[in-house]
Amino acid sequence: MQKKVIIGRFQHETNSFCSKPGDETMFRNLCFDVGDCILKNQKGVGSEIGAFIDVFETRDDIVLLPTVDFVANPTGPVTGDVFDYALREILSAIEKNAPVDGVLLALHGAMVAVGHPDGEGDLLEEIRTAVGADVPIIVSLDLHSNTTKKMAENATALIPYECYPHTDTYKTGLRAAHMMQDTLDGKIHPQMAFRLVPYLLPLFPSEEPEMKCIYDKTAEMKKTKGVLFPGFCHGFFAADIEEMGMGITIVTDGDRPLAEEMADELFIFISERTPTLKRTFPTLDEVLEKALSSHKPLVIADASDNPGAGAFSDSTHILREILKRGIRNTILATIVDPESVTKCEAAGVGSTVRLALGGKSDPLLSGGPLDVTAYVKMISDGKYVAKAKIAPGEIIKHGKTAVVEIEENTVLIASIPRQPWDTEVFYSHGIRPEEHKIIITKSAVHYRAAYGEITDRLEAVALPGIANPVPDGYPFQNWK
Ligand SMILES: [Zn+2]
253: which residues sit within 8 A by CB, 6+ positions away? Predict the structure, then answer.
């Protein structure tokens, strides 16, 4: 008889300080698929679901039952409608196909939904109740998961990414799917131990030496007989829930005491190092001075306005300074301002328009609108296929986009906040980033994967904004 595995993806990283809700529109901007179309849409994509499909493709004795594929850009809490819809679809697939043999999910961790501060914990608890204690629930996680006790109690195994930038999304999907396959084949019996280091880690690239030593430690642990996967997450402090920090999930083959022992060992290892896990950022002045001191392109990442962490991507701090200093030959992706896009479109390509550009979401934090005269070079649908290793093959949508020139600087004005971590945002608009002195992008760390291929001069700044990459100064309400 065919074995039945429920699959799904429901990913949201909630920034509780963002006033925009995670509603259906926000999910539709990225992904809001239900049922069989998921298999068609994700086949061949470098996502976790793409990996699930690839692993089970040759297994005629195992059938994948797709439920939901919901992914949104980070925003404020997910609405009750969307959360209930996803849960209902998953539970009804479980009920309709009962008894199922496994549940394989791609979640983020760090989802806050209205009425569910621990979104994934509540989701997994309901799923566990529906399938019973013996059915494996295996879940891939983003490394920015705020992994909670409830998540760990209700999942058989939690498998986080290990790279930031997340260039191992597909690899993590493969890892989770192989673990499910081996479990269904009776080759392994995953057991998991969980610990939480209650430390709010700044947004930290995994290649920085302070983080790399932790990954060296887990690489060492992987060699221990019986260890299936020693994972740990960085956490996401802007979710502002009670249970935040660096979650450790050690998965072993049928050996709970070993899992507990290694979880303790990694807990001590990380706890001892938290005083070194701090980040400082140069000032904008320092970075601009550096840019002008060489002909090689310099990328300036506006980390606090990163839509990949819940910001609006409309801050004007950097562009204002560039114009004030009379700097030329810079390119910027993106300032999200649908009003300005409409104005540019109405004026038409080849026209000159006056714009109150950006800075509208939160004038105090985002710098307020810039009064500029812009030459409209192009209007596009803002769509391209990602090439960077984070999600190759994924269609990225910035909404209707205007490419404008302001005092010899090129600015992409978009309609939807979406992290421009792929240089394709420029190439797809006929712009060659490597030919520019300064490249400005709204990202904290992910940009390093693609932009690092055109220059080794990468600088992030932490200006005012709701996605500041360091936790100090956040007005936490729930974190204690
Ligand atoms: Zn992440």
Answer: 188, 189, 190, 191, 226, 227, 228
